[in-house]
Specification:
- The chain is an alpha/beta fold and 189 residues long.
- Strands 3-2-1-4-5-6-7 form a 7-stranded mixed β-sheet, sandwiched between helices.
- The two termini are 19 Å apart.
- The chain is 37% helix and 17% strand.
């Protein structure tokens, strides 16, 4: 199960991998929190989609509960937050805790949050990268599962650096989900 908010490049990589017979995991659905191109990506690959918009609920807890209910329909072994720009709250974590991973465009614990690439450039680091981590109740603080480094080039803009990170992030996500599905890695939260 994939949760996404944007263009769906991470979802596309994972769905394409899951269509290979040798890949040990299958994508059972994709959920979004807003109108997002990720929905069209999933549909193009024959993956079921759903939307749970926060504005449709009176409280954050109600939205979290509705999201958990929508995901539960698919009976996922793993929930992949792939460009999902929402913090998963207590109702969702209670239901799926220990089975949720997230991708992040930095080498956590450095540069958590929504502006990781910009923050890395502002800090003047020579190397940044991407992380796949287990999801807990805080922002980008769950145990690190896997990481890949990406050099920061002297002429990098936020856009150019982020594009290079996304290439590694897609490959890392596909590899990490495979390792989790094969039991080579175990989620610890």
């Amino acid at each position: 199960m994939i949760l996404a908010s944007g263009t769906g490049t991470l979802a596309d990589a994972l769905i394409q991998a899951s269509h290979q017979l040798s890949y040990p995991a299958r994508v059972v659905g994709l959920g979004v929190d807003r109108p997002a191109a990720a929905t069209q990506v999933a549909r193009r690959h024959g993956v079921a989609t759903f939307s749970v918009h926060p504005a449709d609920f009176a409280s954050r807890a109600e939205w979290d509960g509705a999201l958990a209910d929508a995901v539960a329909v698919f009976k996922p072994d793993l929930v992949v937050s792939a460009g999902f720009m929402r913090i998963l709250g207590a109702p969702f974590l209670k239901r799926f805790g220990g089975r949720i991973i997230n991708t992040h465009p930095a080498l956590l614990p450095a540069f958590p949050g929504a502006h990781a690439v910009c923050d890395a450039l502002a800090a003047g680091v020579a190397v940044t990268g991407c992380t796949v981590h287990a999801v807990d109740a805080a922002v980008d603080s769950g145990p690190v599962i896997a990481q890949r480094e990406v050099a920061v080039l002297a002429d990098d803009s936020e856009a150019s650096l982020h594009e290079r990170i996304k290439i590694e992030e897609r490959a890392l996500l596909v590899a990490t989900v495979a390792r989790l599905a094969e039991g080579e890695l175990v989620l610890e939260v």
